[in-house]
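An instance follows:
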Amino acid sequence: MVYEHVLANPDGFDFRIDALGQGTYETPIQQQVFIDEDDRISFSSQVKNIQSQIKNCKTFPSFEKAGPRQKLFHAPKQSRAAVITCGGLCPGLNNVIKGVVNVLEKEYGINHIIGIRYGYKGLTKKATTEATTLNSRVVDQIHKQGGTILGSSRGNQDPCEMVDELEEQGINLLFCIGGDGTLKGAKAIAEEAMRRKAQISVIGIPKTIDNDLGFVEKTFGFETSVQVASEIITCAHSEAEGAERGVGIVKLMGRDSGFISATASLANSVVDFCLIPEIPVELDGVNGLYAALGKRLDQNNHAVLVVAEGAGQELFSNSNQRMDQSGNILKEDIGELLKNCIASHFKEINNPVSIKYLDPSYHIRSVQANAADAVFCYQLAEYAVHAAMAGKTNLLIGYWNNFFTHVPIALATKERRMVDLDGALWKGVLCATQQEKPNKD
C-alpha cells in the first residue's frame, strides 16, 4: 500500500507545494489565526514512526498546513474565479459550490465568480452551454438538493485549450471539484498555466465517493453514502428475513477500494458477508462463498451479502476490458453475477433460495449531504479558497490527522488508497459478520 511505501521510503514522495510567487497583498480577512508557510502536519501519527523517520530520512514527511495566509498573491479586487464539477455525482457537490462562492464573496470581496457547465467540456470550444454567474443569492438554497447545479461530464480535454479559455476570460482562480480523473485534469491545467507563466491558481477539492484518494483520510460525500447504504442494507435484511431461505444482496460503490461496503457493513450489523475488491472472491470449494452461505442459511434461514462493485472481477474474463470516458476500466456487474450464480447453485443442489437484489448506487450518489458532510464540504471549500488566494496551485485540499492540508495532486493520484486488511476497519467487519478471514496470499 502507498502508506507502507512512504513509511519505508519517505524520501521517495514529494510533499512540496507549487506556488505562483510570494504574497504581497494584505488580506481583507479580519479576526483570523493565520498560517505561516513553515506550518506543517506530520504524515505519521505514531511516535515510533516519527522517531524512525527523523532518524532515517533527509526530509521529514509532512504536509503543508491549509488555512488563511496574511499575505495574498492574488489581489481580491482584480480576481475572477471559476468553479467546475466533473465525474459522477456525489452527495455534497452543491454544498462545496456554495461554500466556495460564499467564502470568495463574503471573506475576500470577489464578485466575479462563474460556474463552468458540464465539466471540463465547458472550458473548450465544444461547450454547448455558457457559464453561469454565481453569487451568494444564486447559491443560497442549493445545499438542499442533490447533484450539482453546474452539471457534470466525463472525458479528457486539451489542457492548452482550457488554459486559452481561462486566459481569455481573465480567470485567475479555478476550483476543480472531482475525483481521480478530475484532479489529473486539474494538474494538467495547472502545469500548462505554469509553463506559460500564467498566474492562475488551480485548486482541487477531492470528490470521490469511494474514499480512495491517496494521502487523504476522508473525502466529502462518504459519510452520507455510508448512512444511506446502511439504511438500504436494513431493507435488504427485511426482504431476506421475510422469505424462506432469503438472500439479500446489496451492491455498493467501490471500483477499486471497499471502504463504503466495509464501513456500511460495520455500521449495520445485520450483514453476513462483505465482499470487497481488495480480496478475491472464491465461489466453490470448502472455503468458498457457496459453502459459507449454505451454512448461514441453515442457521438463520436468511442472509445478507454486501458487495462492492469492483469485487470479484477475477470471476470474469478480462480479455475485452472497456474504458469509460475518463479512462477508468469499466467493471463487470458482480451483483448480477452473484445473483444468478447463487440462485443456480442452490437450485442444482435442490435447496433453492429466494434472492432479493438491490443496486442503489445512483440513488446514493444523488441524495443531498447529511449534516456531517455539509460541515465538511464547507470546510474544504473554505480552505480551497484560502489556498488559491495565497497563490498556491496544482494541489488539493486534504484531511490528515484531524488537520486540513495541502496535498500535491501528483501525490494524491499516485496510487489508490485501499482497505488495510490488517487494520481496524476490516477486522471490525470480520468480527461483526463472522465471515471467514480469507488468505491474503
Summary: The chain has a mean pLDDT of 91. The radius of gyration is 23 Å. The domain at 2-220+369-412 is CATH 3.40.50.450 (Rossmann fold). The chain has 13 helices and 17 strands.
